[in-house]
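Run: sequence + coenzyme A -> complex structure.
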Amino acid sequence: MDRFRRTLVDTHHIRTPKDSEVVMTELVLPNDTNQLGNLLGGRLMHWVDIAAALVAMRHSSKVCVTASVDEISFFEPIKLGHVVTLYARANRAFRTSIEVGVRVLRQDPLNSTEAHTSSAYLTFVAIDNYGKPIPIPALQPATDEDKRRYEEAAMRRQQRLHHRKSLQEFHQSTKKDS
Ligand SMILES: CC(C)(COP(=O)(O)OP(=O)(O)OC[C@H]1O[C@@H](n2cnc3c(N)ncnc32)[C@H](O)[C@@H]1OP(=O)(O)O)[C@@H](O)C(=O)NCCC(=O)NCCS
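>> structure
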């Protein structure tokens, strides 16, 4: 009965970015590094994807797949023995998709110095059992910072979809030519 009641409450709950945020902490071990003792870019991208996917799934309560990653830059190396913390938060939910922002900080646990090393924006799409996109709940920005991110996400979405359309048109034109 308690479980049933909780499901009903959750379904009607107004979901804010705070509700689904994820803070993920990893320790950089030898198997995560290259021959210079730096964290592999691919390993970091994997962690970014996992943290962001968790946000999308927490927000939507659905299985979500990565549709796109806008960009990920590496501002400075992360070394063996550093602690990596990923802060992932939903910026805006659309009909079936959601933009998640991830901020990566690295800390040297021996002297507590901290640096912002990467940021990324990812889009996830909620899918049903047949892999078809399905609607997700709205996201209600609560703080001024949430509102700024919410507005900016709409601009990034426009660019993303424009880029997707250009690529599709390009592929169609090359198919016709061949
Ligand atoms: C993502 C996926 C479900 C979209 O399916 P689709 O049939 O192209 O869907 P639609 O064109 O109806 O778009 C559905 C939503 O996805 C969004 N979308 C699709 N491609 C996108 C892209 N490249 N970037 C951002 N959003 C995208 C659309 O904007 C739409 O969002 P909205 O409903 O909120 O407006 C499908 O392309 C897929 O399954 N891709 C593989 C995902 C995967 O396996 N990822 C792991 C990496 S291998």
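>> summary
Confidence is low (pLDDT under 50) at residues 1-9. DSSP finds four helices and five strands in the chain.
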